[in-house]
Design a protein that fits this description.
single chain; about 170 residues; alpha/beta; binds guanosine-5'-diphosphate; binds magnesium ion
């Protein structure tokens, strides 16, 4: 199969401040900062991966702060193949809001978008407000997979992008 076919749009959604931009920064530039700005990355970044010998390019779409007011446009979701639904493990409200984001994704992106929940900031071990059991339940409810990650210490950052890429190759 022509490798150029594996060019897939993936969006990152979730409440403001959960670490969406930080996760992308870490994966693409291998850097982390506590002082993120909305302009550090473009709205769309390409990540080229090789999974089991197959080349795939993920076009990763980050929000530019619109998520704060939940004013993400339909264009943002258009033709997306995958979605990372991100929440902050120290903020239970951001976990509860994953259902809102999953619903928005379903309304704008359709039913066949591959969903991966990212439970971020797992490095903040003394402040964790969400249990793995809760995440497992939610993942089942919205038909998603999940990874417990940290943009700060890199835990599962490579793994979650590789997983998404492998799933998209399967479904292409
Ligand atoms: P976004 O609004 O979802 O894009 O969130 P940002 O990427 O801007 O991150 C919000 C804040 O959380 C920033 O101060 C980040 O440095 C911090 N942050 C992001 N990921 C992590 C993480 O894994 N661990 C810790 N301790 N802080 C994080
Ligand atoms: Mg951001």
């Amino acid at each position: 199969m022509d490798s150029a076919q594996f060019l897939c749009k993936v969006v990152l959604i979730g409440d403001s401040g959960v670490g969406k931009t930080s996760i992308l920064n870490k994966r693409i530039y291998e850097k982390f900062t506590f002082h993120t700005t909305h302009t550090e990355l473009g709205q769309m970044n390409s990540l080229k991966l090789k999974i089991n010998g197959i080349d795939i390019t993920l076009k990763l779409w980050d929000t530019a702060g619109q998520e704060k007011y939940r004013t993400i446009t339909i264009q943002f979701y258009r033709e997306t193949k995958g979605a990372f639904l991100v929440f902050d493990m120290t903020n239970h409200q951001s976990f509860d809001n994953i259902k809102f984001w999953a619903k928005q994704l379903r309304n704008h992106g359709g039913d066949d978008v591959k969903k991966v929940i990212l439970a971020n900031k797992c490095d903040l071990t003394d402040k964790l407000a969400v249990t793995e059991e809760e995440i497992t339940d939610l993942a089942k409810q919205i038909n998603a997979n999940f990874f417990i990650v940290s943009a700060y210490n890199s835990e599962n950052i490579i793994e979650c992008f590789d997983f998404m890429a492998a799933e998209l190759i399967k479904n292409c």
